[in-house]
Amino acid sequence: MDIMIMVASYPPTINSAARLYSELSESLRDMGHNVTVITTQPGEDSKVDKEHEYYKSGSPKKNNGLNILRVSPLSFLSKIPGGKPLRFFFSCLLFTFRGLFTKCPDVILIYSPPLYMGISAHIISYLKKTRFVFNLQDIHPKVLFDTGAVKNRFLIRILSKMEKICYRNAHSFIVYSPGNRDYLLKQGVKQKIFTIPNWFDTKLISPSYQMNPFLNEKGIRNRFIVSYIGSMGTPQGLEIIINAANLLTMYDDIKFILAGEGPSKPILKSMINGMKLNNIVLLPMMLNERYAQFINAANVSLITLSSGVPIQTVPGKLSEIMACGKPLIAVVKEQGDAAAIIKQAECGFCVEPTNAKELSQIVLKLYRGKKLRKEIGKKAMIFAKQNFSRTICTKKYDEVLKNAGGNSDFYYDEAS
């Protein structure tokens, strides 16, 4: 089957969307499909892997049997006043034209956000007489409104209208959590909705019981490590970690280590310097084997979401942390989907996004409870292997795409 995939980020860009969809593309290729990926060139505002094949082979169109087509990221538009809406609009046009002048696929799969992917896919599928599957990863534009990223009423109306057009014209939907599924149902979506969690790569992410080189390099082998890895922006609300670390300065062997990039990183640095904290360290984002080493170096891992983020959001690194058998502390809303997974797996604790004191108390509880850490870490690993493996999840994508492309009568049995 010929599959067109549209995603804004793809390696060598480093983020969760790029990782997920590069792995998905490769898995679909291995299942016998012809896969074309339409994505952006690495932008100057993106974190990239300089060792990637992209830089060694001059942006090859063919990559491991995949057809990779790239458009400009239009990064320069974000630097001018009013440029972000222009970047959104022209990016939509670029993806649309790239798709229209590409071989007609049996089915199109899009990753959203950005929301304009849905508009591009709708136009392409309408003109080429094919279907598209909408993979909703973050609820845009709702999350933009809730976090205050978009306040202009005109833009809110435009984005809300675009959202309705996307939802009305998709053949089917893939979401990663029950909360996202419920959101679509409340929006009046009548099409099939499939709940498929985001996965981890079993070849890269697994518990490691060997000597961890990361610990030696950073001189923290005999410390109790509380770690965070990922984006550092407003939606993550990482300030609570700094405040919790400030409450634990009397414990010399507790070390908070945060790795990642994002607009909040300078703010976090300023907070650390202002409080004169020496029990917390900020590091760059880790890649590939280093990423796995970083997670495995921790005694306890953190995931965080600010109070303005919709309760349906589940951080992608949740499954990877669980796969490494690490106890979790989730700074999330108690009624959210991330909290529900942790409660179901019995693999950690949840803290409200504004309660730094409670976060510090739970860190101490796990610091003092070696047996407790081992028990809930084991539960995390078992749950991840049973529910979040790449093989299981990508096979479900395959079945959904086959159905949308008219090549299968099979329906994954968690459809609405």
TrEMBL record:
Residue stretches making up the Glycosyl transferase family domain: 222-380
GO molecular function: hexosyltransferase activity
Domain Glycosyltransferase subfamily 4-like N-terminal stretches: 22-199
Matches recorded under Gene3D superfamilies: Glycogen Phosphorylase B
Record-given protein name: Glycosyltransferase
Highest rank taxon of the organism: Bacteria
Residue ranges the record marks as coiled coil: none
Pfam family, one: Glyco_trans_4_4
Parts of the chain that traverse the membrane: none
